[in-house]
Amino acid sequence: MDPSQAESVAATTPTAAYVHIPFCRHRCGYCNFALVANRDYLIDRYLAALALELSRVIGRPHLHSLYLGGGTPSHLSDAQLAQLFTILRERLDWNAETEVTLEANPIDLQRDRSALFRELGINRVSLGVQSFQPAKLKILERDHSASQIARAVENCRKFARSISIDLIFATPSETAEQWHVDLELAQVLDIDHVSTYELTYEKGTRFWSRRSKGLQAEADEDLRCRMYDMAICSLTARGFEHYEISSFARPHHRPRHNQVYWSGAPYWGFGSSASGFLNGVRYTNAESTLRYIKLLESGERPVAHAHALPPIDLARELLAIGLRRLDGVGEREFQQVSGFTFAATAGPTLERLQNLKLIRGFHDGATAGDDTSPAVVKLTERGILLYDSVAVEIIAAATAADRDAADGPDDQGKSSG
Amino acid sequence: MSERYQDSIRNFCIIAHIDHGKSTLADRLLEVTGTVEKREMQDQLLDDLELERQRGITIKARAVCLAYERHGKKYELNLIDTPGHVDFHYEVSRSLACCEGALLLADAFQGVEAQTVANAYAAIEADLKIIPVINKIDLKHQRSDEVAFELHQSIGIDIDDIVKVSAKTGQNIIELLDTIVDRVPPPSGDPDGPLQAMVFDSHYDEFRGAVTYVRVMNGRIKKGQKLKYLRTGRTYDLIELGQFRPKQTPCDELQAGQVGYLICNIKSLDQIHIGDTVTHATGTSGEALPGYKPPKRMVYCGLYPSDGQDFVELRDALTKLSINDPSFEFTPESSDALGFGFRCGFLGLLHMEIVQQRLEGEADIDLVQTAPNVTYEIVKRNGEVIEIHRPQEVPDAGEILEFRQPIVRVNIIVPEEYIGAVMKLCNDRRGVQKNTEYLSATRMMLTYELPLAEVIYDLHDKLKGVSRGYATLDYELIGYQPADLVRVDMLVNGKRVDALSIICNRADADRRGRAVVKKLKDEIDRHMFEIAVQAAIGNRVIARETVKALKKNVTAKCYGGDITRKRKLWEKQKEGKKRMKSIGSVDIPQKAFMAVLSTGNEE
Fold it and tell me: In the prediction, which pLDDT does A77 show?
């Protein structure tokens, strides 16, 4: 399906947009995101290409959430950022109520840019902190120091109503004590939201190749479990709510933008490698920045692949992704969005997962008995730790119909010889 | 007395061990006789299956016609290529039936190998004139005098008959051609008798249909005639006949003694039977020639499509393959663990491997292959004798009177210094030593009787291992003998996995059982729950391993772009799951089905 067709359908016009800014000062060893380092001369051409992509948006839809991710959006100069927002404003509408998030590197917020940011309407910042400790930052190949982080947060406070930081754990040779220090230092800062990420080894990164050559060891499983548990205990003890597998927020600071992803609502993706979800179609733009620019410059669409999913697959995906929220997925809303009951989506799989004590709250309408309250399915504590396996089970769930189709043919082969 | 045309024909094949330079020699003969111009030469002209060139071996019989002129007389030399490996004995016998002579090729450094001996005996058996050839005399470390002595010792070759050549440099190739003309007898057979042409191979040409390879034994075939294939009884109009020079070159007539091809507008290869006789559809037709000895399948394994839906595709691919390779057979079977698939019989392990590769390469089918096993015989208490092609078929112990396994006679040729290691290996595998003889001062031939099951698992690899690659082996089936055998079942979380059962000697059951469950433990990914992997004889568990439950498997983020990435990852894992076989909600990877090959001797 052509996602551009979807753009004209008013009923499903998204109220969220993601804009990708692929430029970075340098590439960190663990990162496999679509970005370009040391290619700042492409920024102006890139912004022009973005304008071309946005020119396809019909009307001037109103947004509840605008998210600038990367790459490093804060790496743009003041003038370039102003230019970017002019481009966005031309095609998209937002107001003071709208959540406007900027992903930022602490190093880009050492000087006070609050006047500009306030003027642009940026009211939320997601800071790529990762750690406060020089040794760990060095291993992660980050270019900032602990004092720079403090200053960045201070500067953000001048314009942002919500500040989030990212922290990474289970880095090579990291101990539980080191992780404890990072968690403590994080809470000295005046922040509203924390995302904790276990280091993942992604194909194509330096970390990956070092690990495959045996030069770098992955933290062992028990330690990784312990570190995750430490994060939960430490942050919830200080008033952060653990509302999603890796996200913690002070009350009223859950970002709107991620809720969009997790609730199955449509959203736009603009820029190279950006993904969007329109009318049941997931699409992704060209990964390479230069390719993205060239496609638009030659009047073509920048979409690299678009995937229209059958409703049942969308339902399974919605359920799998929705389970990341620790409040769980309510069957009533789920059915409204997807058109399927839990039982029809993945009944036998959910039952099995529940028997394995990985999820709870699932009951098949037929067997619910007296319990007439609408079902809410949630991960259990063990289920949180095994979420990826749970998700694959749900995505790969077979319905009775699927199983019939997969059964062997009744037509038996003839023998030879 | 007038000169018969047949007197100018020589039909011969080359018998050689892998790597002894058969293809190079064939190339050189093509080049020296001008059959192929030097600039058109590409290595290994005859090996036209891609797999053959890749692996440097010959799988199918081929034929090429060389024009050679000596003292003003023109000769037609037909070289019929033969496979060298023990598994393809059957194909060798097809080639031998079309020839009057055989070049017995030995490497001037490596000397006589076990397969050389086996094939040489087959050629002598078929009354072929043997021309012993020692190749690679250009090698620095050549030891052709010793090799000559080995040929004398092992096969009884007269040392004075040996022609020493270098296929690489071309040295003595003319002499070899002269020797072929002088010593290989011209074909007998009556060009004016009723037509009998032996079908020794076929291939399918996309544009022209089936191409039949024949050796005319009696009579003659002319353009435009109507031909009858005796096996099917079908008649066809002959559209084209010709010879391979080495490309298909049409001619007007093929007569007794000649080798060539026929194109008859045959749409499908399954109408051509190797070993069949072609004769005239009208007039006096010839009798059917004695066909070939039907091939013996020594090794069986199950082949399953990795995705249940490819069953029909797999069946079509197997059918296609079996037409070109009648030595391979297949029958549908089903397994609780693997679904619908086929039990396939092969000539040997290499043959099995090649069929699998051709299926995956040519038909692009992803396969799950179960561990190979041999055919057993069981005498039941009620006197019935049954053949067991797979372990699942073994009846309850109470019903078995006698459990028999196939025994092979194995010839191993090995340098003297490795003799101790080889003997130990054979003894460990329950071998019974039958004979030891010196082929030369430094090389010996050992003869053992061994259970075929022990040979097919890994004897060849192990043999190469203990002899630094110098030992070679050949085997032939000599019959069935009773043995103390049991079926060992594998259980995954208490469920028996039929495709993982093995048959082994009772004394080895513990060791094999332990090895298999250990291997399975390594192959099965950790799940969200604990998995018990057990080996059992009947209800008695003899080995157990545990696959511990996963503790943490959660990646950090899941934002907009990540959903697409994650989706890809999930889809991949979902595909992976599909490719695995799910037994009691345990996903077992395909590789695990080969785990039963673990012998417990790996240390």
Answer: 95
Residue A344 is predicted with a pLDDT of 92
User: What's the pTM value of the predicted model, to 2 decimals?
Assistant: 0.62
Please indicate if any CB of chain B lies within 8 Å of the CB of A269: yes
Say whether the peptide bond before residue A71 is cis (omega within 30 degrees of 0). yes
Nearest CA in chain B to A246: B556
Q: Which of B351, B350, B344, B402 is nearest to B370 (CA)?
A: B344
Contact B70, B176 (CB under 8 A): no
In DSSP terms, which residues pair with B236 in a beta bridge?
Answer: B227
Q: Which residue has the higher pLDDT, A123 or A409?
A: A123
pLDDT at B81 over 50: yes
Spatial neighbors of A414 by CB under 8 A, at least 6 apart, are B315, B319, B332
- Say if CB A67 and CB A33 are below 8 A apart: no
Pairing of strands A36-37, A23-24: parallel
Cα Rg for chain B, rounded, in angstroms? 27
Q: In chain B, which residues have their Cβ closer than 8 Å to the Cβ of A350?
A: none
**ipTM value:** 0.70
* Count of other CB atoms within 10 angstroms of residue B320: 18
Flag the least confident range among A183-187, B377-381, B511-515, B597-601.
Answer: B597-601
- What's the confidence (pLDDT) of residue B58? 44
Chain A residues whose beta carbon lies within 8 Å of the beta carbon of residue B577: 392, 396
Using an 8 Å CB-CB cutoff, list chain A residues near B585: 352
Decide if pLDDT at B54 tops 60: no
How close does chain A come to B191, measured CA to CA in Å? Answer: 33
Phi first, then psi: give them for residue B528, nearest 5 degrees.
Answer: -80, -5
Tokens of A79: 């003038």
A5-37 in b/e form (b: 16+ CB < 10 A) is ebbeeeeebbbbbbbbbbbbeebbbbbbbbbbb
- Dihedral of the alpha carbons of B512, B339, B591, B355, in degrees to the nearest 10: 100
pLDDT for A385 beyond 70: yes
Tokens describing residue B47: 């090996």
